[in-house]
Amino acid sequence: MEITARVHSIPAPQAFYSGPLAPNVYLVVDGGQAALIDAGYPDEAAVNTRLEYLQGMANLRPAHIIVTHHHIDHCGGAHALRQATGARICLHPTEARLLADWRADAPPDVDIPSGPQTMAERFRSWRRATAQATADCLLQGGDTIQVGRLAIEVIDTPGHTLGSISLYLREEGVLFTGDTVLGLGTVAILPPPHGDMALYMQSLERLKSYQATLLCPGHGPPVRDVARKLQELIDHRQERERQILAAVGQGRGRLEALLADLYPELDRRLVGMARGQLLAHLAKLESEARIARRGDGDDSLYVLP
Ligand SMILES: [Zn+2]
Ligand SMILES: [Zn+2]
């Protein structure tokens, strides 16, 4: 599917999530050369669909698979795509390390769907497939990858994960953001060590400075009004901070009270994620000495300093 003549999106059937939640895999192509940006899930149907797409383009062989971060929905298919095409997997050093150390059953941003045991088992096998995506080259902010006459610039955008990168195609004004910016809604930012809200907000400001005209997110549709989108996300997080500071100032600094204030109509299934977001904001405000914490864990009481 062409987004521009030199940027394609390669959709695939998804075993877990479809529609706006499916991860996007992009192809940058110029002068007979190509690179993939992200690799989707590792299931055979998704990987094969993406390979067929490349075959349909005169058997185009990408030289690089640039992975925005190590999560299973972006990195999962990378090893299988490398084996089929000979492309080199490029990762930020932090993500390469997280992938190697990644022993948990599930990454923090992917819920294992409830259902038969076979689903959880399949998920674990995918996780193992994802961990096979060892890096052939390490990339960080300021590096570039050449595709024909196009240069793909790497931008450090930590926050969703600590080594998340975005990519900028200056000639086309196109920004690829992985999970740092989604086409719809807001992304999960967890407290350290998984994520970092303070770094995340700096990353959004950094992206704004590129003045891109088209944003290709890790999930959801392309975004045309890039500046507005980025500002909306910044405003949303700042509004959350104001709400937290107001609640803490009124003596409602317990986690349960804050959750009730911030998410009054929360679906019970989303409590875990909401809690993570709240803790990420609290960690940021605490690191900036704008709030203080008494006690630990669920018994913490946040107060103004
Ligand atoms: Zn992610
Ligand atoms: Zn994702």
Model description:
The protein has helices spanning 44-55, 72-75, 78-85, 93-101, 117-131, 197-208, 226-249, 255-262, 271-287, and strands at residues 2-4, 7-9, 26-30, 33-37, 64-66, 88-91, 137-138, 144-147, 150-156, 165-169, 174-176, 214-216, 292-294, 301-303. Strand 10 and strand 11 (174-176) form a beta hairpin. The chain folds into two domains: 2-224, Ribonuclease Z/Hydroxyacylglutathione hydrolase-like (Metallo-beta-lactamase, Chain A), CATH 3.60.15; 237-303, Arc Repressor Mutant, subunit A, CATH 1.10.10. It has nine helices and 14 strands. Helix 6 (197-208) runs antiparallel to helix 7 and helix 7 (226-249) packs across helix 8 (255-262). The strands form three sheets. Strands 1-2-3-4-5-6-7 form a seven-stranded mixed β-sheet. It has 305 residues and is of the alpha/beta class. Helices cover 36% and strands 17% of the residues. The mean pLDDT is 91. The chain binds zinc ion (ZN) (2 copies). One zinc ion binds next to helix 2.
Please render the helix and strand layout as text.
Elements: E1 2-4, E2 7-9, E3 26-30, E4 33-37, H1 44-55, E5 64-66, H2 72-75, H3 78-85, E6 88-91, H4 93-101, H5 117-131, E7 137-138, E8 144-147, E9 150-156, E10 165-169, E11 174-176, H6 197-208, E12 214-216, H7 226-249, H8 255-262, H9 271-287, E13 292-294, E14 301-303
Parallel strand pairs: 4-5, 5-6, 6-7, 11-12
Antiparallel strand pairs: 1-2, 2-3, 3-4, 8-9, 9-10, 10-11, 13-14
Helix pairs in contact: 6-7, 7-8
The protein binds zinc ion (2 copies).
The site of one zinc ion (ZN) has 5 residues, from loops.
